[in-house]
């Protein structure tokens, strides 16, 4: 569904975007990144009011040396340091720079050796909906969620701890198109035998509550693009006369995070492209919501290993999609609760 979402969105949708210009999320690494140069500029540590510490010069020199290395040299150095050697040149450069940065800063006690890459969220819930669709959707076509998957990723162990998956029975376009069945692998019988969205959402909330997310553990939702929440979740709640769930009002858009962290254009942030650039292969059936979510989680794991810090970068506000600026306070999703009816 990922590439299909891209195609539909490019033709125009009914999601209103904020009139405010988007601000790149530069918070995914432990350093601020100059958007037009691409070189890390470390933030001052709590014990230094400026960059006078010699460690910052050492980091800059190391970065300059890494920038001059070719792909074979990068791969050899990564192998020597027992780091992952997969990925394209820019990915390997980023990985090597983050390694040396951590090594240098650990000497000044700014970073503790062996520290988990992301220190805020305990868990990430990856969501990638599948929805009703037609090959050439009319402008007023109503997309209804027909698969609700979740993959629970532990950011400390970098392991998928659990998954949730249920199919959902549509109530507006009850008959799936041949295109939809072929694209998603979801058959008419699967949705006919399923419950409607309100019942499935209630079980999602119970599943999240059982994991003690938002109470004992800090967590956030993560999607492959804006449409899962701003379009599909928003439309589905409106159809079922439900208030938009508070726990899903803010999330991480992996496309933005990946693009800003590795400094690549939007055209290189499709799921297949991200996996390829990181040296990963797609596992499972493309356009299966659960399999897509698992593969997105693999990308998150690799980004955490490369030094990326996860931060919410999108939200819903009064029915509109907004960008969360990098200057916003870091926060997790609230404890999950079943939304009330609009009636």
Observed structural traits:
globular; alpha+beta; two-stranded antiparallel sheet; eight-stranded mixed beta sheet
Brief overview:
By secondary structure, the protein is of the alpha+beta class.
Uncertain parts = 12-49, 109-116
What is the count of β-strands? 10
List the total number of helices. Answer: 11
Straight-line distance between termini: 32 Å
Oligomer: single chain
- State the helical fraction: 25-40%
- Summarize the biggest pleated sheet: 8 strands, mixed
Proportion in β-strands: 5-15%
Mean pLDDT: 84
Q: What would the principal axes of the Cα set say about the shape?
A: globular
Q: Given the helix and strand composition, which structural class is it?
A: alpha+beta
Give me the strand/helix succession. Answer: HEEHHHEEEEHHHEHEHHHEE
Radius of gyration: 21 Å
Describe this structure in words.
The protein has 343 residues and is α+β, with helices and mostly antiparallel strands. It is built from eleven helices and ten strands. The strands form two sheets. Strands 3, 4, 5, 6, 7, 8, 9 and 10 form an eight-stranded mixed β-sheet that branches. A two-stranded antiparallel sheet has the order 1-2. α3 packs across α4 (89-107). The longest helix is centred in the N-terminal third of the chain and has 19 residues, at 89-107. The chain starts with a helix and ends in a 20-residue tail after the last strand. It catalyses: Exonucleolytic cleavage in the 3'- to 5'-direction to yield nucleoside 5'-phosphates. This is 3'-5' exoribonuclease 1. GO terms for molecular function: exoribonuclease II activity; metal ion binding; RNA binding.
